[in-house]
Design goal:
With 313 residues, the protein is of the alpha+beta class. The protein has ten helices and eleven strands.
Length: 313
């Protein structure tokens, strides 16, 4: 019997032009999760701190993801799950994804890795379906695999790791309001204009090209969202002001992180990231709204093991 503790990173989904198909992992911000093997064949969530979330296996994203994974394995042991939530649910930086990705990674490690990371994404997606009502991988894929990840196809699943320039930093500002992904999906249009689709596709191609060629100017020109941002930005306080402030202070570009309300910016170098973070945060401070702000290099590792223990029999 073993016990493992893992760090589950926060993520930025969509990255402006890649709705539901592009995401990245960030550093320093994330949940921790401890999973313990047991001799009784039972899956339990025994403790959650940091958020008021359901403990039932079928009502918690970690429980749903783990249950889907274990259904495909013939094992005689069970697992107890403890979750420490540092990513606030409804923040737009992958709270549910951290739980879903973390639990399947931890169980996979305890069972000596029967599945690849890409295979684990499929199970983690089941947790995301519970949280948002849809099967999407733009948070769980980077959470598990690290870096930038492109989901080229969902049927069949086809996931591609994308290069990350060494000087690229992410900034996240989280105003203290909550937006549920399931709610923000309801306001989206079922159809988009052809001209908007063409522009968005061109920017997605430009962003990926810029990431591979370390072309920061191309990255900057490509961080545009003509389809989702005009609708979801209306739900985020002072969004236009924060976005303009980021650009004026040197950000390559910015946009809505996932479904919001967090706003992300990409920057070249840590000095620029710190300046942009302070400026974006100041908009909320000046307008009397509490907000948290972070800056981070792109996390190329994804979920990682903090501690792995062999239990005394």
């Amino acid at each position: 019997m073993r016990k493992i503790t893992v760090f589950c990173p926060a993520t930025i989904a969509n990255v402006a032009c890649g709705f539901d198909i592009l995401g990245l992992a960030i550093d320093n911000i994330g949940d921790t999760m401890t999973v313990t093997m047991t001799s009784h064949k039972k899956l339990e969530i025994t403790k959650i701190t940091g958020a008021d979330l359901p403990m039932g296996i079928d009502e918690n994203v970690a429980g749903v993801a783990a249950k889907a994974m274990l259904k495909d394995l013939d094992i005689s042991c069970g697992f107890e799950i403890e979750i420490v939530k540092n990513i606030k649910p409804g923040s737009g930086i992958g709270s549910s994804a951290a739980s879903a990705a973390g639990v399947v990674y931890a169980i996979n490690e305890l069972l000596d890795r029967p599945f690849s990371l890409k295979e684990l994404v499929v199970y983690a997606m089941q947790g995301e379906k519970l949280a948002s009502g849809s099967l999407h991988a733009d948070n769980v894929a980077p959470a598990l695999m690290g870096g930038f990840v492109l989901i080229r196809s969902y049927s069949p699943i086809d996931i591609i790791s994308i290069n990350s320039p060494t000087e690229l930093y992410a900034v996240v500002v989280h105003p203290q309001v909550e937006l549920k992904t399931s709610d923000t999906r309801k306001i989206l249009k079922k159809e988009v204009l052809l001209k908007d689709s063409i522009k968005q596709n061109a920017d997605l191609a430009g962003l990926i090209s810029g990431l591979y060629t370390n072309d920061y100017e191309l990255i900057s020109r490509s961080l545009n969202d003509y389809i989702i941002e005009p609708l979801r930005s209306l739900l985020i306080p002072f969004y236009d002001k924060v976005k303009l402030t980021a650009k004026q202070n040197g950000a390559l570009g910015s946009g809505i992180s996932g479904s919001g309300p967090s706003i992300f910016a990409l920057c070249k170098g840590e000095e620029s990231a710190v300046k942009v973070k302070k400026a974006m945060l100041k908009v909320y401070i000046d307008n009397g709204l509490n907000a948290n702000a972070y800056h981070s290099k792109i996390n190329d590792n994804g979920v990682k093991t903090i501690k792995d223990e062999v239990l005394q029999s």
